[in-house]
Write a structure and sequence with these properties.
With 126 residues, the chain is of the alpha+beta class. The chain has two domains: 41 residues, no CATH class; 66 residues. A three-stranded antiparallel sheet has the order 1-3-2. The radius of gyration is 19 Å and the shape is elongated.
Length: 126
């Protein structure tokens, strides 16, 4: 497109390559001078070129639900039964149900009962 610029123009190739993963997990790339001990360093040829700051666990389930909704193309309550089952499978694969109260929170977000979520999970694990 005429006049449009690549927002990652001039960015180190490792940062460019990592950007989709960083975005998918809700993390952020920070400069070397901003890096904190808990950040994950991005090392290229033995030199730290940036760092990845992971998001806090608070809100992790909401971010997982948002990503599944984006992937499936709709809000959880409006999905078909089959799409809801797929959403539960995706959330399960991404570790959502290891979080405390996740079944209850997903059921609320989906507009179904806890029993329905447990039934979908049982069907997946059979």
């Amino acid at each position: 497109m005429k006049g449009s610029r690549d927002p990652l123009e001039g960015v180190h190739p490792l940062v460019r390559a990592a950007k989709p993963v960083v975005d998918a997990v809700g993390a952020a790339v920070v400069g070397v001078d901003e890096a904190e001990p808990a950040d994950v360093p991005l090392i290229w040829d033995g030199e730290m070129i940036a760092a990845v700051r992971l998001p806090p666990l608070h809100g992790a389930l909401d971010r997982l639900i948002d990503s599944v909704e984006a992937e499936l193309g709709g809000r959880l309550p409006s999905l078909s039964r089959e799409a809801k089952q797929k959403a539960i499978r995706l959330l399960d694969e991404r570790g959502a149900f290891i979080l405390r109260r996740a079944v209850e929170d997903v059921a609320d977000a989906m507009g179904v009962s806890r029993i329905t979520v447990y039934n979908y999970l049982n069907a997946i694990h059979r």
